Amino acid sequence: MKLFVRDKSFYIKAATLAVPIALQSVISIGVNLADNMMVGALGETTLSATALANQFVSIFQICCMGLGMGASVLTARFWGMKDIGSLKKALTLMLRLCAVLAIMFFTIPTIFVPTGIMKLYTKDAAVVAEGIRYLKWMVPCFLLQGLALTSTIVLRSVGKANIPLISSIGAFFINIFFNYIFIFGKLGLPAFGIEGAGIGTLISRLFEFSTICGYILLVDKHIGYRVRDFLSPCADLLGTYITISLPVLVSDTLLALGNSAVAMVMGRIGKNFVAANSITVVTQQLSTVLIQGICQASCIVTGNTLGEGHRQKAIDEAWTFLGLSMVIGLVGGGIILLISGPIIGLYNITEETAAIAQQLMQSIALIIVFQSMNSILTKGVLRGGGDTKFLMAADILFLWILSVPLGALAGLVWHLDAFWIYFFLKIDQIVKSVWCIFRLKSGKWIKTFREE
Known about the structure:
Blueprint: H1 8-40, H2 44-81, H3 84-112, H4 114-119, H5 125-135, H6 141-157, H7 162-184, H8 194-219, H9 227-230, H10 235-269, H11 271-287, H12 289-307, H13 311-345, H14 351-384, H15 388-413, H16 418-425, H17 427-442
């Protein structure tokens, strides 16, 4: 067994998928950075409110990622098998579930209990009030973003990663332009403050939905999916879809809830800690864009290769992805250490908040090495092989038995330094990366779908 395969076509295919995904992530991070800087200019209370409100939005985003990635395990395999009929059915099931999730579990609660949502993360009355003003503009965003995000993942699984990239470029400029206008009151408009950030986000989500879903329903000929397919029967695929996709949804939902629990811990440590973490989140995302690209590319490549019937080739490629993950993790950690000082200096924050942010950056630089290995294995290679039940168990065990309780103890009971609080909150990344290497070596991660 060689750690790196020597097939040039493999690297070309992986790069063709990973680079547009990574660039799309850079654009999204650029939007987040611009949002943080503009909202941060309004003060730490407003910055904290936006950060905590977006933790709830992030739960929805990760749930959608679970739905989309679960469907992409099937669509990538069916694409490799040239089974377009089953691919359409998987897409239909995904869109239906996404609509139900968006409306029932996020839109309705945000309309009726926004105060309760914010109080999950903080007891600071001023932060809660500001967060409610922001959340009301997220109400129509859930369905729009959910359908666009899940459809984006499916497009990538059939080799159309360039379409979402084009959409993100447009959304980037739209979001920044309208945020600037509405937050600060330009072009003769009043200054909406934190609500201006919500308005800008809504406009950009409308653009993304129109671009992505419009392309799938009106233009795309690879899948050939049209509105009538949304109403077509697909019960014969439901069993397979649930078997593969439900564990992914549960796994990613638990991850979202775990991240939300982490935010609750941080919210109770103090406003300075929340503000410092919101700064580091953007930097962490910036340093992991290639990880995200390789992660999704590895899932798609693995699914396509197995769909074509090449088991040993998929195994060799899997070890190569592991080797790449180690290299990328080390590079990512170096980037964080390099840019942490300049990034922190961009914000109008107190010395105490800046000191906390610096400690968090150092801890993130260590954790990201293991995060790279863990993400590319769990959300990429092993998921692409259909091993979703194992991964669900891994997320449940290590996130909820180790990270959440140890992080809470470190921050709320032991009152450790910020470096160690973050380390314990993310300790599952270390344990899962080791456990998944043994799983990869066993070969049990390759599952067989129907008609293979």
